[in-house]
């Protein structure tokens, strides 16, 4: 009886884990499909107007540099406008920002969040634009960023997610965080678009049709505003395109505490998103809204670092007390290792990278400890500070 019960638990855990591993493995294989996109002739494209938003909560260390960098765009200056939503920033930071050719908005929120900052910006900007671009306070872009985005939107896209990548690799934590970002780009963006599914949003480096965004931004209510936007877009069957060649450089966390805080925020947003999306799932299934069903499944997936460490743990554990049971766990471990390796861009598969994998176990343990602090009803914004 004891062994029967134990075997049932083992099979159940394996099936739950195998579902997440299979999802990752499938889209990694899909990502190997190379699709050549038709180049848009520059002479065919008109210059659209852009509102560029920088929500900045206590971002004194990075916001001025990011805005100054963005103002170097090769795009016509009269066709875009930058607005910084400065929340709880120092007077000296606001003074420096006020000297730039931008709109400086200074709300005073009792409980700050990125969603509130975006709502405040749309409510306080005087005129309409063709598109709105959202960047984080630490994001750096190339001088041709807006021109490249404009070319993509000319294809008829309503929503575009750009390729966010690491701008720093000053510690083992930041390197692994950057690799994790690229794995996400492979699985949830490039591979999805390759077979006609919507890309995942990532919180910054996003471009929206202005009218759509202005009419939906006030519906945001949680700290996982990107997941809320995704759900609204997919319910309305609005396709999210991914531009792999338009780079947005993002600062990666360098300390374990910031890593834990960031992952805790993401897991909380994932649970909250799953709870909100499940009631709409039956309608999506009956109406064959594949993108919405796929996005709901994504919210059920086990985080990849937990998959990696978890499959190794159960492989070793079952080897000790029931060797025959362990074979299926070793198979899953091999699958997730190979899948993640293939999802990492070739330029990042260096000996130095794999020398930093030893940190992963400690980071995963911190993530597991953070699980008990997750409150899916909590709407407070967990700010990640810059070192």
Summarize the structure in words.
- The chain is of the alpha/beta class and 387 residues long.
- It is 53% helix and 12% strand.
- The chain has 15 helices and 8 strands.
- It has helices at residues 2-31, 63-70, 91-98, 114-124, 145-153, 172-194, 210-216, 225-235, 256-277, 281-286, 290-300, 304-321, 323-343, 351-355, 358-371, and strands at residues 50-57, 80-87, 103-105, 131-134, 140-141, 159-166, 206-209, 240-250.
- Strands 3-2-1-4-7-6-8-5 form an 8-stranded mixed sheet, with helices on both faces.
- Strand 2, helix 3 (91-98) and strand 3 form a beta-alpha-beta unit.
- Helix 1 crosses helix 6, helix 1 (2-31) packs parallel to helix 13 (323-343) and helix 12 packs antiparallel against helix 13 (323-343).
- The radius of gyration is 22 Å and the shape is globular.
- The mean pLDDT is 88.
How are the elements arranged and paired?
Layout: H1 2-31, E1 50-57, H2 63-70, E2 80-87, H3 91-98, E3 103-105, H4 114-124, E4 131-134, E5 140-141, H5 145-153, E6 159-166, H6 172-194, E7 206-209, H7 210-216, H8 225-235, E8 240-250, H9 256-277, H10 281-286, H11 290-300, H12 304-321, H13 323-343, H14 351-355, H15 358-371
Parallel strand pairs: 1-2, 1-4, 2-3, 6-8
Antiparallel strand pairs: 4-7, 5-8, 6-7
Helix pairs in contact: 1-6, 1-13, 9-11, 9-15, 12-13
């Amino acid at each position: 009886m004891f062994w029967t019960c134990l075997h049932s638990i083992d099979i159940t855990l394996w099936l739950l884990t195998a579902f997440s591993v299979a999802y990752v493995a499938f889209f990694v294989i899909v990502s190997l499909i190379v699709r050549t996109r038709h180049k848009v002739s520059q002479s065919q494209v008109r210059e659209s107007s852009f509102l560029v938003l920088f929500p900045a909560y206590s971002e004194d260390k990075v916001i001025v540099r990011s805005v100054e960098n963005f103002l170097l765009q090769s795009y016509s200056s009269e066709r875009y406008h930058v607005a910084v939503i400065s929340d709880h920033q120092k007077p000296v930071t606001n003074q420096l920002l006020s000297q730039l050719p931008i709109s400086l908005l200074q709300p005073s929120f009792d409980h700050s969040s990125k969603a509130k900052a975006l709502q405040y910006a749309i409510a306080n900007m005087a005129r309409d634009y063709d598109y709105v671009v959202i960047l984080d306070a630490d994001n750096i872009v190339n001088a041709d960023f807006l021109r490249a985005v404009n070319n993509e939107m000319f294809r008829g896209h309503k929503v575009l997610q750009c390729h966010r990548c690491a701008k720093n690799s000053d510690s083992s934590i930041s390197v692994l965080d950057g690799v994790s970002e690229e794995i996400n780009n492979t699985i949830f963006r490039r591979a999805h678009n390759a077979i006609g599914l919507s890309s995942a949003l990532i919180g910054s480096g996003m471009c929206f049709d202005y009218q759509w965004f202005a009419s939906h931004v006030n519906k945001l209510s949680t700290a996982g505003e990107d997941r809320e936007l995704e759900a609204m877009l997919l319910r309305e069957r609005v396709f999210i395109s991914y531009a792999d060649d338009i780079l947005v450089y993002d600062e990666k966390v360098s300390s374990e505490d910031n890593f834990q805080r960031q992952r805790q925020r993401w897991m909380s947003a994932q649970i909250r998103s799953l709870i909100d999306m499940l009631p709409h799932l039956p309608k999506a299934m009956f109406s064959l809204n594949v993108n919405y069903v796929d996005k709901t499944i994504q919210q059920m997936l086990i985080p990849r670092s937990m998959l990696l460490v978890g499959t190794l743990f159960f492989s070793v554990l079952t080897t000790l007390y029931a060797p025959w049971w362990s074979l299926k766990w070793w198979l899953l471990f091999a699958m997730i290792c190979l899948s993640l390796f293939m999802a990492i861009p070739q330029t990042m598969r260096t000996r130095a990278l794999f020398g930093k994998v030893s940190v992963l176990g400690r980071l995963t343990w911190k993530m597991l400890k953070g699980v008990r602090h997750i409150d899916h009803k909590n709407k407070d914004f967990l700010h990640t500070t810059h070192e």
